[in-house]
Amino acid sequence: MLRTRVIPALLLRDESLVKGVRFGSPQYVGDPCNTVRIFNELEVDELLFLDITATRERRRPNFTVLHEIANECFMPLAYGGGISSLEDAKAVFKVGIEKIALNAAPLQSLGVVTEIARHFGSQAVIGAIDVKRNWLGKYRVYCHWRGDNSQFDPIEWARQLERAGAGEILLTSVDREGTWSGFDVDLVRQVSAAVGVPVIAHGGAGTVEHIGSVVREGGASAVALGSMVVFQKQGMGVLISFPDRRKLETFLT
Predict the structure, then answer these.
(1) Which of 31, 46, 57, 176 registers the highest number of CB atoms within 10 A of its CB?
(2) pTM listed for this prediction
(3) CA dihedral over 127, 132, 134, 136, signed as positive or negative
(4) Can you give the CATH number for the domain in which 160 is found?
(5) Are 226 and 202 in contact (CB under 8 A)?
(6) Which residues are catalytically annotated?
């Protein structure tokens, strides 16, 4: 097991896995269960699935797909998308998910984080923050279901999520997502310094060096990888994979 968690972050749309760039132009990359089987063989420590359309379509999670994924998965499993209440969380955990990521629901009612954390414990709740720079270049929490920025500052929002009961922060740079250009280390550094819970850096990874940099310089406790684990290389075809562990150890020590 790696000292720093390196987590494949897989995007669900309907019953398929997709991957895009900066939250746009998603393309099909595979079947969820087949992909889980590959990651089982690669002995990945943890998996994260995010349903990218559930909130926008105002529907609950696809429990049929989640049940199939959980039955195949040999490692801890986290899920986000369409969870807006304690009852939704209970149903997701009942399937066999260990953690839930809350993104849209807290922006509408922060109390949902507290309610779920009190029932299941903070370790089971991830506060998910999507961040995009506005026209003035300032970081703002991005509302993916609306397709625009909110007025929330992500550093202060991370503090509020922690106070509400989130045990981790999943921090996604929309501007870097799917670009292979590296994490937004400055954003990760600011959020990591502002909270006392682990921060999972997400968005922009293209090399093992990028992973090492966001951990050493940004203070990330973990990293989530998208394009790097579903494509051969930038601009090339689909290949479900995981970075070489020896290289990861080199850059994470």
Answers:
(1) 176
(2) 0.96
(3) positive
(4) 3.20.20.70
(5) yes
(6) 130
